Automatic annotation (TrEMBL):
Residues 263-581 form the Dehydrogenase E1 component domain. This is 2-oxoglutarate dehydrogenase, mitochondrial. Signal peptide: none annotated. Its EC number is 1.2.4.2. Pfam families: 2-oxogl_dehyd_N, E1_dh. GO terms for cellular component: mitochondrion; oxoglutarate dehydrogenase complex. The 2-oxoglutarate dehydrogenase complex catalyzes the overall conversion of 2-oxoglutarate to succinyl-CoA and CO(2). It contains multiple copies of three enzymatic components: 2-oxoglutarate dehydrogenase (E1), dihydrolipoamide succinyltransferase (E2) and lipoamide dehydrogenase (E3). Belongs to the alpha-ketoglutarate dehydrogenase family. The lineage of its organism: Eukaryota, Metazoa, Ecdysozoa, Arthropoda, Hexapoda. Its cofactor is Mg(2+); thiamine diphosphate.
Amino acid sequence: MHRACISLTQAGSVGGRHFTKWLLKSSGRAMVSATNQRHSTKVGAEPFLNGTSAVYMEEMYKSWCIDPKSVHVSWQIFFSNCENDVPPGSAHQAPPLGTHVGRNLTPMFNLSPATSPALGGYLDDKLIDDHLAVQAIIRSYQARGHLVAELDPLGIMYADLHSTYTDRKGQPPESVVRNYMLEEADMDRIFKLPSTTFIGGKEKSLSLREILHRLENAYCRHIGVEFMFINSLEQCNWIRQKLESPGITELTNDEKRLILARLTRATGFEAFLARKWSSEKRFGLEGCEILIPAMKQVIDKSTELGVESIVMGMPHRGRLNVLANVCRKPLEQIFTQFAALESADDGSGDVKYHLGTYIERLNRVTNKNIRLAVVANPSHLEAVDPVVQGKTRAEQFYRGDGEGKKVMSIILHGDAAFAGQGIVYETFHLSDLPDYTTHGTIHIVANNQIGFTTDPRHSRSSPYCTDVARVVNAPIFHVNSDDPESVMHVCKIAAEWRATFHKDVVIDIVCYRRNGHNEIDEPMFTQPLMYRKIKNTKPALDKYAEKLTSEGVVTPEEVKDVRDKYESICEASYQNARKETHIKYKDWLDSPWSGFFEGKDPLQVSPTGVKEDTLVHIGKRFSSPPPNAAEFVIHKGSFLFIYLRVHV
């Protein structure tokens, strides 16, 4: 301390002498003596002053002398008070609450002169409470925004989730603000954004009105996300950034046209089958046609990120559409399944909506080759789940793909089966086991909001059919099927999540089933109110075409041209299929390999027996102790076990 005082005095400045004098007074504890007791009342008046802080203080003072703004505002006040002979104990003032003491650091809150302690005022409790309230509001949207999101294209599911529902139109009810002790007068106040949100983009603070508007658009429109139960801050922040960043959901006009074309194909395929085979059961996709563009978006993004092979499993609903428009299986092969033709080769066969396939083709979006396999499913809905995982795991093993970067799995589900069949829960619990993991599966739920003829309120106890996925910390994205662009955004996030974290993810496409359980059933008998609503609901294709037309992205003529073009493709394939006289089961194998049908009968099993002498020799060697092992003692229980295995 003396060295600091001498050094400052030797500087020759008047300020230095003033500061030295003041410092000697304030550090009276260190310099008090028997002959000088009059300063003892000021001992410890400045508690941060001691012998070890002298060098640091000297450096701060020198910096202040050169440029007062180079030190923190609290040090500016301190040195200024010293210069003005302020008594010890009064020169130091505590820095503003929420600031960091140090050089060139900005305060957490924007303080006016009236509230800044450094300028003579004090930070009141209300300012702190209001900022904490805004942070609580942000977290509430992230955790519970899905409960008020516009997810149901029919508008009937909200009675199960909350008592009242109105179109929020980008702004919450006044009660949201009042619940956090804020008022309308606070809406235009500026608040600093916490690090757990990305709604500001490059902006660090926003008005409360703008904060609420951006949160509404991120969490309460057509996407509802459940992710706050995930116990990883990195993963939660990753999802927040994908949802909250300004402009993150915007698409180019070319991307919108691609969605329209794919949705047109999905809708046109079902319409064509309905016209040609009106009395056939086909378990069509009407009401959830967006599933086809959704799957293609997942495949496109995954291929872009390095995936080369995708194994898929699904129930019967929509299978023919997936084979036609996702796998691009030749339409002639699909249409011949309706003709009840004899088989040209051996095999057991199955109904057309249980069959699988294997396709290797060029992905035109990424210009990369992709292998697609749809596993055959013998009607039992979710029974195919572990089969898909086993096939994926095996392919990863034989390709040396230890991290799942080249081979992945996609499983499609119905809402009732996803919640009702225990095999779903069991399969989820394989997802992170070292010997069973496939390094992340993308689950897509075609949520018809009905199971056969059962209302969800009578088929499950949980609010969502996807709640089973929470057991493995899988994020769950609920999305309105009538908003194709939101569906594409969710699918893109899911593919990126799987590539980044190699963990399961769920996409819940909330849609409806335009027909009955199959095309022959009459659903008005069991769900008259629901199907009255469905009959008055426009197909998703019509709604999206009208939207793009109003935006000037396409013209009505272009929309019609896309429809007519696909119709002509289907008609040409139909005419070719009528010329076929047999079907071929080999076209429907999900795991073909070279030579499978060549030169031998696939139903004839080769001899697998072993000579009895060989088995006896193996048994004797297996039950004998190691040779030259006199000290080797066989446990009695083990010896009995070996004896029984060999001789009984």
